Amino acid sequence: MKRLEVLSILFAVLLCVGLITGCGGGSDSESSTADTDAAAISLDFTLNNSTGVEIYGVYVSPVEVNQWGEDIMGQDTLADGKSVDITFDPTEETEYWDLMVTDSENNQLTYKNLDLSTISEVTLKLDNGTPTAEVK
To answer: What is the mean pLDDT of residues 6-11?
Structure first.
């Protein structure tokens, strides 16, 4: 009988220790890791149009992919001299992206190798007909 009481007490103590350990330390470190990961992979940026033309479509693609995704501006356009905040949640886990914009005549301007994980602002320009991007 005493052995059963001792085992019951031991089991209760182990259960309490397990609950305390499981509830305490793990959740803070897991949530801070998740917060760090989420902050590290933010690819959102402000797009400034200094091309001299109205932008009708904005497309992004990982550098290693030879295909454009959907127009991330939807049905909106971006007049020359205007800005828009671009928010997207890609499924690919890559830092470097290519960006392509189209105008009303479906002309394409491509800007390559943008590290969107470190960029918060992209200003698109045309220098003598060559697409260039200033980044911050």
So the answer is: 40
